[in-house]
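Query form — protein Phytase-like domain-containing protein

QUESTION: What is the three-dimensional structure of this chain?
INPUT:
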Amino acid sequence: MGKIVTRTVAIAGAVALTLAVAGTASVAVGHHNKVTKPTLTAWASLPAGTFVPGSEPSGSLVTGNTNGFVAPFADQPIQGFSGIAANGDGTFDVLSDNGYGNQANSGDFLLRVQRLAPVFASNQVDVVGGLNLTDPNGFVPWKLTRADRVLTGSDFDVESIVKAKDGSYWIGDEFGPYLLHFDRGGRLLAAPAPLDGVIAPETAARTGVTATLGGSKGFEGMAASPDGRYLYPLLEGTVTGDTAGQLRFNEFDLRTRAYTGKRWTYQLDSPAHAIGDAIAVDKDRFLIIERDNGQGATAVNKKIYLAQKRSDGTLSKKLVVDLMNIANPRKLGGFGTTFTFPFQTIEDVVILDEKTIAVLNDNNFPFSSGRTAGVADNNEWITIALPESLRPDKRVLR
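ANSWER: The structure tokens for Phytase-like domain-containing protein are given below.
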């Protein structure tokens, strides 16, 4: 999957630059020997201090430990990485989330889909484009942060993404929680679609309706059926009245633009855990990232499960990868023979071929420091060879 790309970079504390380079977008698939345990096959990194050149200042309300970065920032950071969609040409659309951690401090963070290309030969990630999310036609019925209707991290907390066959985007939000449908230019196409009976604190504060979900516990993951008809948004938190650690996995019909009433439940290993992403393997099976809240030395449970629909309305789960115990016989990235992914939030998984997946972290710029204490995390991009085939539906490999 080789092609010439344009790399957009910025140096920490410096002005953002756009450099034309002969980069090669490459995805590490189909070139590994048979492995007996999950094995690192490629590693790349996008520096924490990477910004959208010539954009807008951001971070004016950021406080706390910024790990050496001085806020506000002259431009919009290319960070977050809370969902990923493959484009089939070696590039990927990656979703930046709500900004700086909460609604109150993220009004100058522009919600954005970044287009990226990993270049594993040089351990780099090229930024080849992106688009801001907007609501020019006024589909959001309440007051937005900006009069120009460019969406910000105070309007929505976007955490999951599916790219439809027509190039439009379905995005899962945590402030509703809502499903949001954008065209290929990032323009909202319809009013936000709520989930009956599930109310996040941000919506409760705006409407006066009682919250039934914890803060930042909305649609963290979202899968699409291989035939493109259904979405399966997965809540990150437990709805009031449900069993602790039990997460609702609902079915949304794209033909009727409504929930079907079918749902399954995913049981976390611990109620203190959270999910990071959910994607389809086929019509009945899904990869789900489950994680604890630790980073660095306190990171223990960072796992990817294969979940399957069951007739009793639950999802079974089978461990696919322990992200804290990945074989690295070639010592890729300068790491040892056992590679760990010790980040607080790991929110992106994509299937590259039947035995290879890619995983990315959300670096929560500039706050997370899981790789090195006191140093803002980069966005790392890894590919992992699996000992057994996932037997995916071929349509998920487009």
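ADDITIONAL NOTE: The two ends are 13 Å apart (CA to CA).
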